[in-house]
């Protein structure tokens, strides 16, 4: 697989100055039988085009809620969410793809049919979507598993199918909520390395929610640290490690320094 460190960022429209995705003054309240929960308070986040942004923070600080709002799947109580400079509501599948911790594959479809599903929804003819589907599976190293069903794959393989399905849409913005959270530490880092190799080729905008500070430091250009009760932005940490990155970078002094900084920020809230 060739790595293109300087690939042009995917810009669906507009100029590179327009953030790919942005949350402006987002406040969100859930109404429960026990009363109101203030999940997010005045959150402002702008993910520049072609950047990899992670969101970390203690459990319950509103990371998933923020991602759902950015995805257009959850209307915020206050504030607005802009996708490529536009405040259109609801998900826009051509500009945006979402991958969750649970791979959410359709159990009755093969890997190939799961990966090519977004193209089917767009009415792409079968021969073309099969070609693109096989290409996408090859990118995540699963070309020989095209005809397998999800139940016949390991957890890591299922997650790779989900990543291929998200990437086949060539979205300008990819939102990922703990996509490797259910995997063991070794598989998780392997998946992170593979994701970075793919991302180096397309350089779209990724917003990645994780609990894992090593993963966040390794993948990101910037890590947004959130605080809880109410959920808000505590600090934004620039990760100025060189790219392309390989797993060995996690052993460098600069990496450990950045990761420890994130850890201290999270600890300061306890
Ligand atoms: N559907 C819901 N109804 C009521 N309260 C909710 C709902 N979803 C989330 N919350 C509450 O909103 C707050 C933020 O939750 P959210 O899941 O966004 O946080 P998180 O940072 O993603 O948590 P975790 O890291 O544990 O996944 C929490 O207090 C949570 O209990």
UniProtKB/TrEMBL annotation:
Q: Which GO terms describe its molecular function?
A: ATP binding; ATP hydrolysis activity
What PANTHER family does the annotation carry? ALIPHATIC SULFONATES IMPORT ATP-BINDING PROTEIN SSUB (PTHR42788:SF13), TAURINE IMPORT ATP-BINDING PROTEIN-RELATED (PTHR42788)
Alphabetical keyword list: ATP-binding, Nucleotide-binding, Transport
- Hydrolase found in the keyword field: no
**What's the protein here called?**
ABC transporter ATP-binding protein
Where in this chain does the record put each ABC transporter domain? 21-253
Keyword Transport belongs to the record: yes
Source organism lineage? Answer: Bacteria, Bacillati, Actinomycetota, Actinomycetes, Micrococcales
